[in-house]
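worker-03 picked up job from queue 'complexes'. Input manifest follows; two sequence lines, order preserved.
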Amino acid sequence: MAETEVLKQLIGKRLLDNQQTLAEEIHQGFQDKHAIRYTRISADAVIQHAGTLIEKVGMELIGEGSSTRGMREWGRAFGTEAASLQLSADKAMLVVPVLRRVLYSRIRSVFQEEQGEFEAYFDIADTVNPMIDQAIYAFTQAYFESQESRFQDAQDEILELSVPVVPVTSDVAILPIIGSVDSDRSQQLMSQALEKSRELKLRTLILDLSGVHTIDTYVAQNLFQLNDALRISGVQVILCGLRPELVQTIVHLGISFDQLTVVNNLPQALAKTGLTVSDS
Amino acid sequence: MRIPILKLHDYLLISVQVDLDDQTALQFQEDVLEKIHEEGSRGVVIDLTSVEMIDSFIAKVLGDVVDMSNLMGARVVLTGIQPAVAITLIDMGIALDEVPTALDLEQGLERLQLELEG
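worker-03 finished. Artifact:
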């Protein structure tokens, strides 16, 4: 009966010697069992990743591995790549059950050849299973971190793009506000509006709120601040396009817009600056 | 039942013919705002000649209608306020010092014109 250590060495060596074959077997199993078709990543890349995984498990078994750290590195590398290629995470992870099957089939053959003991099997499993778990954990972590940061970038981009100050004449511009305005966005609006008003040397800035359906006290506060800040810079602010539901919210919140110039719609706002819009 | 709102050029004319109950009042509030939004009206005359009495809730709703309309850039003139209604409004502290009032529709429209030019 062979001892655990001997068995480990043998299995490890078996894995390392047959790394390429096993990797291809995994790739094949991945395709057959789950009918995965590679549209975003090449078959070679998948085989290479599988191969690295086999190598790490093998090295660990013969006692030369870097254990969990190695698996985590693999997981992170694969996870980040998968996220950037926009691979579906759940499909990518299906490689793991296939890997497990292939690994354990080799472990089983070595046990049969060497007549390994039951206890030894558990020892081997206790080495191999945690490694696989670490790999999965690291993959998931890296994948989702990657997704998060891309999402955050997209959000920042949206904020940037969402303050379109449209010049109508050399000293009048319109700022249409569209969509929900939360505290972050209203801060952005404020600073961008001030910045652009200065840039364009405006006399009047018309804030069109037709696209805004709700408002809270913080955002209203920001509007007042914007008004004051612009007034000090010599820019007149006219609000227009307040929707019925917005107006009801404002009154119910008890906010007074007395200090602001408010008109019904854009043509009226323009009329206040001396411009007329004629329907001809 | 909804209170009919009539459009006259830039203005809206409303004659309240019945004693308002809570639901009618709230519906009225919504309808006025919608109409101002749709038509871009700059003035609203609300004639209350046929309204003999209002309670505190209706008084609040009326006050709110005025505020809300102002927020939408429309001036409001209340006309034909009956004595009992006037007393309730004062009691409720509805700031009618800022709300122009007039005796009847004709004077109401004149007042509106003044308001809008001023």
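worker-03 released lock.
The two ends of chain A are 101 Å apart (CA to CA).
Chain A touches chain B through 16 residues (CB under 8 Å).
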